Amino acid sequence: MVSNLLKVVLAIETSCDETAVAVVRSDKQVLSHKVLSQKEHVVYGGVVPEIASRAHINYLYDLTSQSIEESGCDLADIDAIAVTSGPGLIGGLIIGVMMAKAISSVTNKPIIEVNHLEAHTLLIRMFHDIDFPFLVLIISGGHCQFLIVHDVGCYQRLGSSLDDSLGEVFDKVARMLNLGYPGGPIIEKKSIMGDSKSFFLPRALINRFGCDFSFSGIKTAVRNIVVNQKYIDNDFICNISASFQDCIGDILVNRITNAIHMSQAINCKINKLVVTGGVAANHLLRNRISICVKDNNFEVLYPPTELCTDNGIMVGWAGIENLSKGYVSNLDFVPKARWPLESIKRSS
């Protein structure tokens, strides 16, 4: 185990289209946080991996220097370096890992490879006193899954998407409607002004056993409606957005109810659901989820809205959680485009 003295961790996140660096302390203080969301992808309606990698190369060094300076620390004050090592876009991961390894080598400080999904999952413990075990729903641009969080580095998957992630479907629907990228916030805003009963969309897997998801049928149904619509005006966009959001809400309520029952059958002490990832910032979906969870005698917790999307703070906190367990990495680890959370293996 690592000493209980305050630890300072430098964190680097480059798994997708955010270049982020933070300096986080083990008493839950954020000493600095820099994040640059790459605007280059907007014109393409989604993330272009090569453009993302080049942007990380252009921004990461300066962002790291600025974050260290803003924290009031120098490299000698840093106790460890935490870096996202997967899952994600391999080009960006390589750049972040190379930077972290260089700093670790020069300073002789320990390095911690962080699973991106673990970072999203454990962030809640920075803001709430929540003990293990608990249930988590990760809903983001690349992932959609339920897991039981037994401890740091110990996860059990209950269900996941069989096709698209939820954030991916939001982006694709927004692209069909020429709304721009990222699609989630725009669709949420449009849906507020629409009629959720205007169009019927299929609720895949609803009322079936388990807590897997399938969103490809919804995407196809929206495309068919858009293709057959003669006039795509603002009223149409608001109504299809509202119908889409309502459909997603129904699916989440059904799948969450099943996941709660499944988790309690495994461990009756589980009574909290954490919802995290970029889509967890959607306030309309939060309202649906919160009602459902309360009806099932559970408590639901969300990270701060601004930290639902990728950021360095979550990587730094995951580093601190791992460091507290004595989990550090050798310099020979490699970034991984795929890294299921339940496959994590730790060594101290």
Give structural notes.
By secondary structure, the chain is of the alpha/beta class. It folds into 2 domains: 8-123 and 307-343, 2-Layer Sandwich (Nucleotidyltransferase, domain 5); 132-302, ATPase, nucleotide binding domain (Nucleotidyltransferase, domain 5), CATH 3.30.420. 41% of the residues lie in helices and 18% in strands. The chain is built from 10 helices and 10 strands. The strands form 2 sheets. It has a 5-stranded mixed β-sheet, with helices on both faces. Strand 4, helix 2 (90-107) and strand 5 form a beta-alpha-beta unit.
- End-to-end distance: 8 Å
Rg, rounded, reads 20 Å
Strand order of the largest sheet: 3-2-1-4-5
Mean pLDDT: 94
Number of helices: 10
Going by helix content, strand content and strand pairing, the class is alpha/beta
**Helix/strand order, N-terminal first:** EEEHEHEHHEEEHHHHEHEH
User: Under CATH, the topology of the largest domain is which?
Assistant: Nucleotidyltransferase, domain 5
- CATH architecture assignment name of the largest domain: 2-Layer Sandwich
Q: Major sheet: size, sense and barrel closure?
A: 5 strands, mixed
Q: Which range does the strand content fall in? A: 15-25%
Q: Percentage of helical residues?
A: 40-55%
Domain tally: 2
| Low-pLDDT stretches | none
Could you tell me the number of beta strands?
10
Q: Which CATH class of the largest domain is shown?
A: Alpha Beta
CATH superfamily of the largest domain: ATPase, nucleotide binding domain
Cofactor: Fe(2+)
InterPro entries: ATPase_NBD, Gcp-like_dom, KAE1/TsaD, TsaD
GO molecular function: iron ion binding; N(6)-L-threonylcarbamoyladenine synthase activity
Subcellular location: Cytoplasm
